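Worked example 3. Consider a protein that binds DQA.
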Amino acid sequence: MKILFLNGPNLNLLGTRQPEIYGRTTLADIEAQVRTRAAILGVDVEFRQSNHEGQLVDWVQEARGRFDAIALNAAAYTHTSVALRDAISSVGLPVVELHLSNIHAREEFRHRSLIAPVCVGQVSGFGAFSYILALEAAVNVKRSA
Ligand code: DQA
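Given these inputs, the predicted complex is written out as structure tokens:
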């Protein structure tokens, strides 16, 4: 089984970006933690990050036939991107929405996720551990399908 982790804008800055909200763990550290857990679960993972909406749309589209599920931290595009939502609707793969912070406990504009209705579920608020939970969720969705 292969799970694709996609990370949206500004997540390349994790570690130094608003550490009071997002913690001090870098995206590379998170990837290492996910890889350790993935090895225990016996699955492969691939990690990507882009600041560009169209690149994320391309990666979602290209995942069909190459990956079994997607774990997606769409970052700010969560709240704005109809294009990403349409790509998720079209790809025919389970997508787990994930966030480091609890988006529902933050500014009102973050409460609405345009992608939530087309994802299998949402993990939000557990810091770097949200990525482990999203991995577990994605694997479970596939294994119990
Ligand atoms: C985020 C939450 C978003 O609202 C924000 O724009 C991000 C990160 C999170 O992981 O908590 O960039 O997706």
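Take a moment to read the result before moving on. The helical segments are 19-22, 27-41, 53-62, 82-91, 129-143. DSSP finds five helices and five strands in the chain.
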